[in-house]
Design brief:
Order of helices and strands: EHEHEHEHEHEHEHEEEH
CATH architecture: Alpha-Beta Barrel
Strand order of the largest sheet: 1-2-3-4-5-6-7-8
Number of strands: 10
Structural class: alpha/beta
Largest sheet: 8 strands, parallel, barrel
CATH topology: TIM Barrel
CATH class: Alpha Beta
Radius of gyration: 16 Å
CATH superfamily: Aldolase class I
Strand content: 15-25%
Length: 225
């Protein structure tokens, strides 16, 4: 099984091209957020999404908590996937599925403890995948991603084992630790931002090192299986 890779915080068409050339399966486009790196204007998100060729997916990172607001944001930017970075009410997730059934939906779960697994039965019927991250949505200024911190991978591994939906792993991933992350968590995909950037810009060398480490870990995983 090949581990998919999503490169987040893409800021321009040029960064998108760098990520695609390195073998990225998906690109993350960060909209307005209460905190964290990488937000770009909706007009820029729309232009990048329009320029990215299939089969590479474009993920809009949306912080809204109401289905109508998320759907409007998706219609304004036209990504292929919406990544819901807030812990929205399951009823809103159901409404969103009805409003934009043609757009794939990924629910972020911020792993602060074992209670993260309780989100699976409530949200799985309404989304196509989960993404495990290290934010703190209830902090005084909400952290909804881009923290550069790893969380407890034992909880992530339990989440992957319990979920029938594909699961992406995010939070503090680098070329040095991604092999261990794949071995321990066995995610469908990986998501990262700061681990492949230098001085705020996507770094082609760091990205190449990360992709090589993922390939090496996948090869070892295939040998064991």
């Amino acid at each position: 099984m090949r581990t998919r890779v999503k490169i987040c915080c893409i800021a321009s068409i040029e960064e998108a091209r760098i990520a695609i050339a390195a073998g990225a399966d998906a690109l993350g486009l960060v909209a307005r957020m209460p905190s964290g790196p990488g937000p770009i204007p909706d007009a820029t998100i729309a232009s990048i999404a329009a320029a990215v060729p299939p089969p590479v997916a474009t993920f809009l990172l949306a912080a809204e908590t109401r289905a109508t607001a998320i759907a409007a944001h998706v219609r304004a930017t036209r990504p292929s996937v919406v990544q819901i970075v807030s812990h929205i009410d399951p009823a809103e997730a159901a409404r969103l599925a009805a409003l934009i059934p043609e757009v794939r939906r990924v629910q972020v779960v911020h792993v602060e403890g074992p209670e993260a697994l309780a989100m699976i039965p409530d949200h799985a019927p309404h989304v196509h995948a989960f993404l495990l991250d290290s934010g703190r949505p209830n902090a005084p200024i909400a952290e909804l991603g881009g923290t550069g911190r790893a969380h407890d991978w034992a909880i992530s591994a339990a989440f992957v084992a319990a979920s029938e939906r594909p699961v992406f792993l995010a939070g503090g991933l680098t070329p040095d630790n991604v092999g261990e992350a794949i071995r321990r968590v066995r995610p469908f995909g990986l998501d990262l931002c700061s681990g492949v950037r230098r001085d705020g810009r996507l770094d082609a060398r760091r990205l190449a090192a990360f992709m090589a480490a993922v390939g090496q870990a996948d090869a070892g995983r295939s040998d064991r299986e």
